[in-house]
Structures are given as C-alpha cells and as structure tokens.
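pls design
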C-alpha cells in the first residue's frame, strides 16, 4: 500500500479523497479537511519509509550489544537505536516537510483558498502588479523553506557525533 501511494501524484490523492471519501462514508467532508487528510495520507507514506530507512541504517551490532547488556527490545529502540537513527533521518524529514509546504499549493484544485490561489485572485482583481504579487508569494515560500532548512542544520550540528581528538 505504501509503495502504491508513493507512486501516485499528490494531485491524484487529493482528487480521490475529495470524490471517493464522501461516496465511501456516505457523508460529505469540507474541502479543507479533504486536503488535510490527503496531505497527511500522502506524507505519512513517505515519512514511514524515512523512519524505516533510518532504523535499518543502524548497524545490527548496536541492537545485539544493547540486548546483550540486558536491555529489553523496547528500551533498546528508545535509548540506543532511535537516537542514532534520528540523526540520519533529519535531512530526509526536512526535505519532506519542505516538499509538503510547497505541495499545499495544490489545495486550490478542490476549492481551498491557499496562498497561491489567493495571490491569483488578487491578481485577477487588480491586474496591476502581477510580478510583484507572485514575487511576494515566492519570498514567503522561500522564507518558510529556508527556516526549515536552517533549523535542520542547527539540529544536525547539535546532534552531531563528538569528533575524536
């Protein structure tokens, strides 16, 4: 199922949620909730694979060593494996969150007023400053994405392995 979702364009997932969910559940759902559900469903497929790869990237010797010291499997995961895996997962998490920020612009397709759609509406009303309007929107997207990337770099440095002398 995860590979199936990852192989589909997000636009298709939004359409499916918008058109199929009300038919399956027998009741309509607001457009904004449809988009939130679709983005959550789509992103969770990618996030699950990021977490899986992060955990599988830790050498098996780490798990074996922790279990041999008497730790339970749960304590091994929480105290040994996940902290190490998190360091490896941070860049992929940030990449996925940045993609998610940019993917929110697809919400207009089902009638949700999001940033790009509002800019288009303003442009259609005024027809005076289209370059400035869309440049402003690009700057807003850049600021959000740059903030995530900067936070990622800081977090990676904070969680980095201590360098050997």
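designed seq:
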């Amino acid at each position: 199922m995860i590979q199936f979702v990852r192989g589909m364009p997000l636009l298709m997932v939004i359409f499916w949620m918008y058109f199929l969910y009300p038919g399956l559940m027998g009741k309509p759902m607001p457009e904004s909730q449809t988009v939130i559900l679709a983005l959550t469903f789509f992103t969770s497929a990618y996030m699950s694979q990021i977490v899986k790869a992060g955990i599988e990237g830790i050498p098996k010797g780490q798990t074996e060593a922790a279990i041999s010291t008497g730790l339970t499997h749960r304590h091994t995961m929480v105290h040994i494996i996940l902290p190490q895996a998190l360091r490896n997962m941070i860049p992929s998490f940030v990449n996925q969150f940045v993609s998610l920020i940019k993917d929110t612009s697809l919400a207009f397709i089902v009638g949700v007023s999001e940033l790009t759609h509002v800019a288009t509406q303003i442009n259609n009303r005024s027809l005076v400053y289209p370059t400035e309007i869309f440049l402003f929107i690009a700057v807003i997207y850049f600021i959000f994405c740059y903030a995530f990337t900067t936070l990622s770099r800081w977090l990676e440095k904070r969680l980095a392995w201590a360098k050997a002398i």
